[in-house]
């Protein structure tokens, strides 16, 4: 990479996703105007009025955000993250008026488990991760640690401050429930175990009632212990009839002191503060990890580990699904030809179609208990074609999600990659078995050819513009360019790596490849010789996408980065950060104005294609206009082209 090329940040336009596995990780601002939640290392502040998003990234977290806490007035937000074992895990206090980092606090090692503000916003309490297991009290105004102590003999998972006193809070965890008294003047913490008698529990969540008279401690056994806030004595246990299935994962109180509990089986229940009887209950999908009461106290947001958000009425217990997203690794992303406002993503058990501007889900296609490994649109936009870990190829209607056809036994152990020709007459697939197969698409789907030179999993395939050549990348250390007229190898390149990505330049003269050796290589399609090798790239290059104009390309790597490259110069000009896991796939919209990347953490990140400067912006617009003219011309010729149509390697690009 050229040292002269300065790297800037790619503008993040929107995010689809939620880490629903974080306890109390979905927050409602006291003004009821915004909701706050994490995705990877990014914290999203989303307007409830218009859906606009603000991203807390600058001077922010470098790894997965593990906990959030909002001060009583909503002035401050605190967030913690995980780190490598033995490394300091930062806590960041954000100013929610300016959406900037206010203080960065460092003391916990390995990660931060939980956070909570004192009622007058003077102090912040923090719990370290399991191996740290410390409780620390911080001065919010100075960012200094006032005092700390071991949280318990085992491990503590949650901390909650009293509603009215800045000198009292409670922690809970594995067989431990402790009340703490804090003295700022003496810089001292004193703890007292709650007396719960024979009720030994693994606690998951705690809540004070509005008057601080009682504290409610939820646990994995499926019940809630009611203890005296002053004397640390157990007073009651509920619900009365039977415990909640799969445990109680989170608990809060209403304005009048009744208890709202969320359980591992998706049950939301309202319990009476008087006798602990269940007054109302309903069930949603997934383990409930967050409950957020609105300012009026009549509705509650419910977040689950399936990354679903519901709004539930406490009066009727009727609920609406407000947002949804993938809750597992997103394996692929694809745009339809000529449509930039819509894209599809694949994940465990489903395919989803999204609107790029509004970030709303348009269609969901569910195939239970299977993993979708790849997804593409047919060139005519009339079908979504997908590959699955059961070895089948399934095609669906994009508007309704109805099944069109299934190709059984396409690849042993799973279909990993797909590509479709422009005339919609043929489909190419690659699999875990190392084979590449060509299928004819008519009234029936028939196997036309099998190409068997790879000896390991196929990670990427890419057709050239004329659909006469196919490039494939494999874990066996080879990239092969195939002639689709004769279904034979045209040229092969080899390296001591596992090739994860490959893509043609639009003029078909070159391919670029990336893999686990942290190298990006330009290859001559005519003879297979390397033209340029760029070394020292952070992490494995998992995915590549070349713009249709050929001026730039995108890459995604294991270091959670999305990079914007100048094609001819070989420079990284812009970098996108926000993923907390490896970037698994990246796609450029047909109009070359939007980039979508997806990752292992389940997030979908939508980026703005940057312009380097005014001169390049003008050239870029001219290239877009030229591309649109070429696209219109190619569509006119598409009906007369076939898979075996004549085409060549083009002229070799020189630098």
Low-confidence stretches: 1-5, 634-655
CATH fold description of the domain at 338-638: Methylamine Dehydrogenase, Chain H
Q: Let me know the number of strands.
A: 55
CATH C-level class of the domain at 338-638 = Mainly Beta
Radius of gyration: 28 Å
Structural class: mainly beta
Distance between the termini: 15 Å
Strand content: over 45%
CATH architecture of the domain at 338-638: 7 Propeller
In DSSP terms, counting alpha (H) and pi (I) runs of 4 or more, how many helices? 1
- CATH superfamily placement of the domain at 338-638: YVTN repeat-like/Quinoprotein amine dehydrogenase
Give the biggest sheet. 6 strands, antiparallel
Coarse shape: elongated
Mean pLDDT: 91
Spatial sequence of strands, sheet with the most strands: 31-32-33-34-35-36
Overall helicity:
under 10%
Describe the structure.
By secondary structure, the protein is mainly beta. It has a domain of 301 residues: 7 Propeller (Methylamine Dehydrogenase, Chain H). Helices cover 4% and strands 51% of the residues. The strands form 13 sheets. A six-stranded antiparallel sheet has the order 31-32-33-34-35-36, with no helix packed on it. The chain has a five-stranded mixed sheet with strand order 1-52-51-50-49, with no helix packed on it. The longest helix is centred in the last third of the chain and has 25 residues. It is elongated and about 85 Å long. The N terminus and C terminus are likely disordered.
